[in-house]
Write a structure and sequence with these properties.
The protein has helices at residues 2-21, 103-120, 212-217, 222-225, 231-239, 245-252, 266-291, 295-307, 312-331, 335-358, and strands at 64-73, 76-84, 95-102, 137-140, 148-155, 163-168, 201-202, 241-242, 363-366, 369-373. It is an alpha+beta fold and 381 residues long.
Length: 381
């Protein structure tokens, strides 16, 4: 029985290898992980890094990867990508799922893939020194008197479809430098670390068989082994995390909202301060107007509140709650909710202040436009 099983395993394995070498053997099953010991890539490259010991047994010939967007998600900057199986037809079908991987891991795998593919085409590719910034690394510039600034690769804030260098105050790269800091003064060029977003990319590049460089560089086992050589897909798959609905919504949004936890930019902070101050001013103005209310007006207003099933103290608690929620949303960098609460509060406070200020006149006009009151000068019902 054992002999029969061994024979069947040999026949199935031989058939799979033959299909892969012939370019067939489409598969849409996920890559297999942890099935074999560390296997070095078939090429000879100067990458002395245990990071690429992937310990997998995946025949990447049938797979493709499509980087979607570079975003900040759950406190880290990541690249969202989709993985496709055999018969994907340029990433049009056979999608295995959407995932994300840390920017540093993805860029290292992507760059090594480029290095390998260039070599197979007989072209020179100088691995950029800037690849060192996949980890938090100190740099020294003249602008700060030679003081250290800490750099790390991350996402381009304006597009979400490019890699950018980020500057930090601390050696752990957790405290970003101010928006006025100009990284360009350091003379660091990361153009060779580009990632092609929204582009279907095969996991394995097969060189032309009649190419002289290809013929000179490969050995007898190249045809059978090269299908396993994909640092780009291997690293992305090893480092992946499933992209949930929130992650996928983020990856499909426009560039203006590329980051779920992205902070307010300089212009946003300016208007945040302006509308916060205006809100405080309007709140004090409303309080001042209420102190001047006639007794009958105060009684009438309190009766309206009680008619709604509340008491005046509930209104006070509501105002305090709105203030706390607005501050909380701003701290969590939930920009939409922050602006909704802040602007909404300003509009309501202004309307209430205008009503208190002009109620005796029976109308409220701004620039000739009547916001409140009727044509006879009475208070509208």
């Amino acid at each position: 029985m054992r002999l029969v099983l061994s024979l069947l395993a040999f026949l199935v394995g031989g058939a799979s290898a033959a299909a892969a070498a012939a370019g067939g053997g489409a598969t849409s099953s996920p890559p297999v992980e942890g099935m074999r010991d560390a296997r070095e890539l078939s090429g000879d490259y100067a990458w002395d890094d245990d990071f690429f010991t992937l310990n997998d047994d995946t025949l990447w010939s049938d797979y493709a990867l499509n980087p979607k967007r570079c975003v900040e998600f759950n406190g880290q900057e990541v690249i969202v990508f989709a993985m496709y199986g055999g018969g994907h037809n340029n990433c049009a079908r056979a999608q295995l799922g959407t995932y994300y991987a840390p920017v540093a891991d993805f860029v290292r795998g992507y760059t090594k893939q480029k290095d390998m593919d260039y070599n197979l085409q007989g072209q020179d590719y100088d691995v950029p020194d800037e690849l060192a910034y996949t980890t938090c690394t100190a740099a020294y510039g003249d602008d700060d008197g030679g003081a250290a600034v800490y750099l790390k690769l991350g996402c381009n804030d304006s597009t979400g479809k490019a890699i950018a260098m980020k500057a930090f105050e601390d050696a752990d790269c957790t405290e970003p430098k101010s928006n006025n800091y100009n990284i360009k003064n350091l003379g660091i060029d990361i153009s060779d670390l580009r990632v092609k977003f929204e582009t279907c990319q095969d996991c394995v590049y097969w060189p032309s068989g009649d190419d002289d460089a290809y013929a000179a560089d490969v050995d007898d086992g190249f045809e059978s082994n090269h299908g396993y050589d994909s640092p780009m897909c291997g690293v992305a798959w090893k480092s992946k995390t499933k992209c949930n609905r929130k992650c996928q919504r983020l990856a499909t949004k426009g560039a203006s909202s590329y980051s779920y936890h992205a902070g307010f930019n300089a212009l946003g902070k300016f208007f945040l301060a302006v509308f916060t101050m205006s809100g405080i001013f309007l709140l004090l103005a409303v309080h001042s107007q209420r102190k001047r209310m006639a007794t009958e007006d105060a009684v009438y207003e309190e009766a309206l509140v009680q008619k709604a099933g509340m008491q005046m103290k509930h209104v006070v608690f509501g105002i305090m709650g709105i203030i706390v929620l607005t501050v909380l949303f701003a701290m969590l960098k939930a920009k939409f909710l922050t602006w909704a609460f802040l602007l909404g509060s300003n509009v309501v406070l202004f309307g209430y202040w205008a009503y208190l200020r002009f109620r005796k006149e029976g109308k409220v006009e701004v620039g000739g436009f009547r916001l409140f009151g009727d044509g006879d000068g009475g208070i509208a019902a």
